[in-house]
Specification:
The chain is α/β, with parallel strands linked by helices and 306 residues long. It has helices at 17-31, 53-65, 85-95, 106-115, 130-144, 160-171, 188-198, 210-214, 234-241, 248-251, 274-277, 284-303; strands spanning 42-47, 68-71, 98-102, 120-122, 151-155, 175-179, 204-207, 219-222, 259-262. The strands form two sheets. The chain has a five-stranded parallel sheet. A four-stranded parallel sheet has the order 2-1-3-4, sandwiched between helices. The chain binds phosphoric acid mono(formamide)ester (CP) and norvaline (NVA).
């Protein structure tokens, strides 16, 4: 995996399909314990939003590789008191080997990447969650043997996860259907980009009809109806999103072998029922575990082994 050394990973289209496939292969080898890569470098975590999975999986990945992690919590570093991003970035690059950032605005992440001449990873922004979708792709590949031609349905809010999922599916030759309330569709730029990547060879469908989107689909995916930063509108969103809840009734329309994914954290009784997340189709715990394996593969390939 020489090709990714020194690069940033700010969104899913920073990788091409063969690079994603190679990453998934490396992740599978790491997961099976077949690769013992060591990489004694230092990762900085700069998270402006809460995180369990991303924070812990990046940290454990780095520790298992033999590297170190520094938590640059904005509450205890000067960037949280208004030190300019450009200044912080130019200092951090002198200490760290790689930086994973979780922000609100994609623009802020991009500014870090411009000023820090070390690899910068998108650990979630309001625009995309690409590390999540690498783990989702690994999970789907494990369940179906390959990715090409698999149909994925996302139900709920057209948010960061929906964006990365659309791009990831289009890149890997998969069909993607996104069912949202009319006012909560993914942004047009992402939809156009996904359609261009798919080139008419695979489906990129937007709809407000959850049943039509679910019909015969093999992967049913949902996420919270109100993302971090949208807490004020959480209550008003509930009745609007109710028809898009992933429940047993909706799943009767899916492929008989369909699996259910959720990036977590989940709001049981809102976007997904307790019965479904705990049910036989649910692969959410494998999906969460795969964050560790794909991010370890990503770290190795962006840093280069030493
Ligand atoms: N799915 C995900 O990114 O979870 P965290 O917010 O806990 O990191
Ligand atoms: N869309 C959610 C994902 C959390 C992992 C959020 O941004 O809060």
């Amino acid at each position: 995996m020489e090709a990714l050394t020194g690069r940033d990973f700010l969104g899913l289209t920073d990788l091409n399909p063969s690079e994603i496939q190679e990453l998934l292969q490396l992740a599978a080898q790491l997961k099976a314990g077949k690769s013992k890569i060591q990489c004694s470098k230092v990762l900085g975590l700069l998270f402006y939003k809460a995180s369990t999975r991303t924070r812990v999986s990046f940290s454990v990945a780095m520790y298992q590789l033999g590297g170190q992690v520094i938590d640059l919590d904005p509450k205890i570093t000067q960037v949280g008191r208004g030190e300019p991003v450009a200044d912080t970035a130019r200092v951090l690059e002198r200490y760290l080997d790689i930086l994973a950032i979780r922000t609100y605005e994609q623009k802020q992440l991009e500014t870090f990447a411009v000023y820090a001449q070390i690899p910068v990873i998108n650990a979630l922004t309001d625009w995309e969650h690409p590390c999540q979708v690498l783990a989702d792709l690994l999970t789907i590949q494990e369940c179906f043997g390959s990715l090409g031609g698999v149909t994925v349905t996302y139900l709920g809010d057209g948010n960061n996860v929906a964006h990365s999922l659309m791009l990831g599916c289009a890149l890997m030759g998969m069909n993607v259907r996104v069912a949202t309330p009319p006012d909560y569709q993914p942004v047009t730029d992402i939809v156009e980009q996904a359609k261009e990547i798919a080139g008419g060879k695979t489906e990129v469908i937007l709809t407000d009809d959850p049943v039509a989107a679910t019909k015969d689909s093999q992967v049913i995916y949902t996420d919270v109806w109100a993302s971090m930063g949208q807490e004020d509108s959480a209550e008003t969103r509930i009745p609007i999103f109710q028809p898009y809840q992933v429940n047993e009734q909706l799943l009767t329309h899916a492929d008989p072998e369909a699996i259910v994914l959720h990036c977590l954290p989940a709001h049981r009784g809102e976007e997904i029922t307790d019965e479904v997340i705990e049910g036989l189709r649910s692969r959410v715990w494998d999906q969460a575990e795969n964050r560790l394996h794909v991010q370890k593969a990503l770290l190795v390939s962006l840093l280069g082994a030493d």
